[in-house]
Amino acid sequence: MNPEPFLNLDRVIHEKGRMAILSVLAASPELSFTEMRDTLKMTDGNLCVHLRTLQEAGYIAATKSFRQKKPLTTYSFTDSGRFAFAKYIDLLDQIVQQNKK
Known about the structure:
Largest sheet: 3 strands, antiparallel
Shape: elongated
Strand order of the largest sheet: 1-3-2
Strand content: 15-25%
Number of helices: 6
Oligomer: single chain
CATH superfamily: Winged helix-like DNA-binding domain superfamily/Winged helix DNA-binding domain
CATH topology: Arc Repressor Mutant, subunit A
Number of domains: 1
């Protein structure tokens, strides 16, 4: 087995909570904080920490606005985040494929 794909996995994405966030964002152009929290069944604090890490890595962007006079924060992929997530998925596929050989 070639260990190279394992060594190249992005540690920011590899954490379970962050991978879940990026997975739901991959299926939707943008999601609000509450939509993500409810979909992923995460606490506010846990979700905040993971979102901050993804923002600091440049993988997601936050947009703040108001809806019916209430603050609304939505999140979406950045171009570099979409690229990093696609690369991560490709590496996982390489790992799976090498185990089939």
